[in-house]
Design a protein that fits this description.
The protein contains nine helices and five strands, in the order ααββαββαβααααα. With 278 residues, the protein is mainly alpha-helical. It has a three-stranded mixed sheet with strand order 3-4-5. It has a two-stranded antiparallel ribbon with strand order 1-2. The chain is elongated, with a radius of gyration of 20 Å. The relative contact order is 0.14.
Amino acid sequence: MAVALLEERTATAREREAFDALGAVMDPELDEPVTDLGFVRSVDVLGAGAPATVVVHLRLPTSFCSPNFAYLMASDAKDALRALPWAEHVVVELDDHHDSDLINAGLAADAGYKGTFRHEAEHDLAELRETFRRKAHTAAMERCLTALLRAEPTRGVESLADVTLADLPAGRYTDALLRRRGALGLPADAVVDPDARVMVDHTGAGCAPADAGLLLRKARATRVSIDGNAHFCRGLLRTRYDGSGADQVERSDGAEPADARYARALPLTVIRSGKDTP
């Protein structure tokens, strides 16, 4: 199916390569690639020779999305595209945001976050990234442990304190958890670190069995918040930009029945020369 959809597009191989590179850019709050969320509005590659110019336009669910989140995603998109060996010049612009002019000027000048927002930038982006890495790890941990409880109904919640990486079944929840642990510098290989505990904080500290229930509930609140925000933002984007639902990839975590109509295996319209009307 994916091959058939790709053949229907008029995108060039380089435009496809550029779009794929953007798949590494995450929305820090939603813990999801911008390509899956439909935030990539257009991708154009100018010039058929070895050195080429890549022009990407991004869009967000509202005009007032947090400027630091917006800048972080746009800056990461530029870095991802610059890594392409044939991309000599990269232009990333954020559309329809109340700080679009400021952000786009900062990106064009490579001014960095503080250089762009100057006195308004109280913290650097490293702190923001770390905060959301920890939240993403907490949510991934909760998904794994809750799935374990559902698979083993007789298991007591206290026992979760002693669950190790070797106890987790193979699958996307475990894979996601290992990636999040790796990002925090925690043991992240179930073969190399089979005895590493799953229920740990961002420092790797575990908990007593008596505290496992409370920690799981706190982790669940974090996970529900991420899932809820992700679906809320997807809906806002679809409302703001007609047809943008076709550029979103289904998110099964936290999905409601009404989301099924928007499910797509791959984005269909994101790679094109023109832009749709907001």
